[in-house]
Amino acid sequence: MDFKKIKRLNYHKTAGLVDRSIRSIFAGSIDTMNTSIPTKESIRDWFKLLQGDICQQLEKTDGKGKFVSDVWERDGGGGGISRVIAQGNIIEKGGVNFSAVWGKTPEPTLKMLQLPPGEHPDFFATGVSIVLHPFNPMVPIIHMNVRYFEMSNGTWWFGGGIDLTPHYVIEEDARYFHQQLKAVCDRHDTGYYPGFKKWADDYFFIRHRNETRGIGGIFFDYLKEENAFTKASRFEFIKGVGSAFAPIYTFFMKKNNSLSYDDRQKQWQYLRRGRYVEFNLVWDRGTKFGLETDGRTESILMSLPPQANWVYDYRPAEGSQEQKTVSLLKKGIDWVM
Which DSSP string do the residues of 68-95 spell out, in sequence order? Predict the structure, then answer.
């Protein structure tokens, strides 16, 4: 990784200056922007506005934490806005990142797509990526990513998803989370949720631990124009997923932050964060893609928690809350039955 390729354009101690500059260039709101014929520019602009809307809702619910915004440029083409929050009332560390980057398609992506020999199209990729780590171990970690990718040869697709990683699995919370995601999916296609839920179970799986990262959610990739799906309908689904994030997570922030916890539960939180780190650094495709395309390292590794622990061969006590949580970290649980 050549760190000289990443250049900071500006650094604001508050998010307001960035918000004003964005609004001056991209007028409108996430509810009113016209995306009936999605282009890479209109998709990019909606993602940018989504980032600002989510940050506002999170700040309001946290009540203390403020996002610090860092505008950056990628030497190979494009850049983004990293917005990081730390030491709030509820959120210990988190990021809501926007990027729009372009340039030569990396070799691993070309191999994955099995393009003809000698074909080296350019790429354009844009999206919003979010990870939030709370103080209270009763409040879950959450991740969302919504993204769009296209190539100069005409290939394009959408991808993304939302998944929840509770330090302690609270079954009523798991059901609520999956019911909200199913409702979003069903508004666009009733086949989305069962397929994307299974995809999340399989994707967010820590193979070397034989356990899921959390309780899953939905995960999807390579959503293209096929069958009855158009580019516009795919984008409307992506917008539905992105817009659902803040209401879902602020619900958990409000509901669970008042729950008490002790030092034993805090130590368990650090161990579960360790599992989160293992997945992101070993298995996550987004992390690998960002590093392969000379993305900004600080933004890519924003997903890592402020503190995580590893204890050799740790085994939760029989009948404990911790053991119950581990027993529920498996594929195929039907949370909306």
Answer: EEEEEEETTSEEEEEEEEES-SSEEEEE
Q: What is the structure's pLDDT at 30?
A: 52
In DSSP terms, which residues pair with 10 in a beta bridge?
Answer: 71
Average pLDDT over residues 190-219: 97
* Residue 3 pLDDT level (bands cut at 50, 70, 90): very low
Tokens of 222: 């390579």
Can you list the alpha helix ranges (DSSP code H) found in the chain?
16-25, 40-62, 107-113, 171-186, 192-203, 231-256, 263-282, 285-292, 297-300, 321-327
Q: What is the DSSP letter of 143?
A: E
In three-state secondary structure terms, 148 is strand
Catalytic hit among 12, 120, 143, 208: 143
pLDDT at 295: 74
Amino acid at 112: M
Q: Which two tokens stand for residue 27?
A: 């007028």
Structure tokens at 215: 């309780």
Q: Is 34 helix (H, G, I), strand (E, B) or coil?
A: coil
CB 131 within 8 A of CB 141: yes
Place of tokens 């709030």: 88
Report how far apart the first and last C-alpha atoms of the chain are (Å, whole number): 46
- For 282, the token pair is 């070993």
pLDDT of residue 29: 43
Beta-strand runs (E) in the chain: 6-12, 68-74, 78-86, 91-104, 122-134, 141-151, 156-165, 205-206, 211-212, 217-223
pLDDT one-digit tens code per residue, 229-272: 999 999 999 999 999 999 999 999 999 999 999 999 999 999 99
Q: Which tens digits make up the pLDDT trace of 126-174?
A: 999 999 999 999 999 999 999 999 999 999 999 999 999 999 999 999 9
Which residue bears the tokens 């934490």? 65
Catalytic status, residue 188: no
In whole angstroms, give the CA distance from residue 59 to residue 66. 6
DSSP 8-class letter at 301: G
Q: What is the CA radius of gyration of the chain?
A: 20
Domains of the chain: 3-327 (3.40.1500.10)
